Structure prediction request, 395 residues.
Amino acid sequence: MKIRKSFTIAIVAIVASALTTGPVMTSANAAGVTINGSGSTAVKNLLDVCIPDFQKSTGTTVNYAGGGSGAGRAAFTAGTVDFAFSDAAYGSAESKPANFVHLPNVAFPVAIEYKLAGFAGSLNLSKSTLGGIFAGQITKWNDPAIVADNNKSIKSVIYKTKKVLVKGKTKIVTVKDKKGKPVILKVVTKQVAGKLPATQITVWYRSDKSGTTGIVTRWLTAVAPSIWNKAGSTGNQTFTSAFPGDVPAGSFQGANGSDGVSNGIASKDGSIGYSEVSYASERKLGLVSVQNGAGEYVQPTSDAAAAFLNDLTPGENGTVTVNPLSTVSGAYPISSFSYALGYTSGKDAAKQAAVKEFFTYVLTTCATNHALDKGYVPVVGKLAAIATTNIESIR
Prediction:
């Protein structure tokens, strides 16, 4: 009989005593070493602020090319990089190195982002409506399903907050319970009314093999099974392979990486797609309030992602599984992890020490200092302890 264990994911607004305020140094001195990595573009905006600080603190040079989770895993398998980041774990049938470990290093919500002139207010989309849009069955913004989602009574969550003093400045932070889950102050019901234009919908998707695509298609398959019903499509990391049919030309546009998808949406009115939140924020794109399993319409915030990811099922080799059908109140359901991938043996000792030090820095100092500002969720508690243990296996 399998016993379900829960691991805690929490938003960290203040440096917890379990985390460090500076880089955690390994026993080996990695200064002067250069390490190269590739992979997830969803996590790249966080790494772009982690890497300069880490380099300044340690003297280690870190090159991270991005390129997508699939490309990162392929390079890691081939041994052409020293580390990788992937928004999905290796598949059971996927070629992989003999000795490696997954490290759940940071979590994040995947935003459904859009650009729609002539619409004011927050765009609410139900699970079935989003399933229809991404399957090409809903093609105009004034479709009755979209209109209905934005002209009715909806439930939304307000979290409990408090004022704290951080480095001499007063900050408002979300209150957490003992497990690190955001505390809900109240669930409110309000009437929404929005006029939708008759604009053609253009769907932007990742053309590369993408862990972010896997997160989205896993959710679509779970919540809209009558539409997203292609055999074997659950969590498929190639959008065209998961799509239920032939992808319509013209109204669907592929782009490489989260950056490419967000740039595409920003370039064309009536567009919708998916990426990590900071890519949408940088381009001032709208963020859809997505209907969760509790029937609430929730924005892709760090708090809402933490509520969804609070209860996990552990897997092998550092992997974890979340339930896309979770009915937790306040949860944003399109949320997941980015895994750091490290070799456990057979590599240059100095580079391995540098990778170990870098992963620890991202997990602790950088996550504490930058994750919330960039829309990510720091990994803490028992899951952070697992990540730390797995980091120690990198030699």
Observations:
- The mean pLDDT is 87.
- Residues 34-108+310-392 form a domain with the D-Maltodextrin-Binding Protein; domain 2 fold (CATH 3.40.190.10).
- The two ends are 34 Å apart (CA to CA).
